[in-house]
Amino acid sequence: MSEPSTGIDDVAFLTRSPHRVVALEALSDAPQDRDDLRAVTGSSSSTVRRLLREFEDRNWVERTGHHYQATQLGAFVARAMTAVIDRIETERRFREIWEHAPGEDDGFTIDMCIDATVTVAEPTNPYCTIDRFRSLLKAASEFRFVGPQVALVEPCLDELRNHLDDGLDLRVIDQPERAESFLRSHPEYTALLLEGDDPPVLVHDDLPTYGIVISDDRVAICCCDGDTGTVQAVIDTDAPAARQWAESAYERYLHEASPLDLE
């Protein structure tokens, strides 16, 4: 006597072949005939026929004439599978870089990044993180960042200078030694970044190993190697929860920051 099936068995059935979830999603969106399902799944006629029979046995689809459509049960399962797959795909994008990202102790969660753009430095494309940072900078009229972004800023100095001349609202909070080293290496920026009643560059003695960027409509996390300072990845998103987290962290560091004194 066979054991009764479980929810795990149904999940295993759906994930055993990628076309099964695709087919159930399509049937949840609109009625489909067998030709439609062959086209959307890339499967043979016999495979589609067997699949529909399996779906019917589970009461996931119903037939009207030559068309099939998901029942409420089938649509419920399709939504659940789509959500699970989306979450696993999100986890896969972060798997190799998560150790360099903010953690739960910082109030940051992976749920904030489900729809994020994740740019990871690769041996074949080591400058992709710089390119992504540059694109965020170019699109901004307001740009605030906290933490170790020197490796990203230095290759973008020309764009930064042009953007400042065009009225970019800039605020940088960095560690004193890093900010001092940068400005001594680039003295032409000293007047621009340090002078005035409200200088764009402030310093803080206790910053995280990651960077936080806040621009007009996106926030970004710059994931850096704590030992080398190398930028491993840039995670950027327009998710409200991520922005709320970034704004809160930024305001906390801003409140504790002070002007840099090069004397």
Automatic annotation (TrEMBL):
Which InterPro entries does the entry link to? FilR1_middle_dom (IPR013561), HVO_A0261-like_N (IPR057527), WH_DNA-bd_sf (IPR036390)
Stretches assigned to the Methanogenesis regulatory protein FilR1 middle domain: 126-254
* Residues of the HVO-A0261-like N-terminal domain: 9-93
Q: Name one Pfam family in it.
A: HVO_A0261_N
* Name of the protein described by the UniProt record: MarR family transcriptional regulator
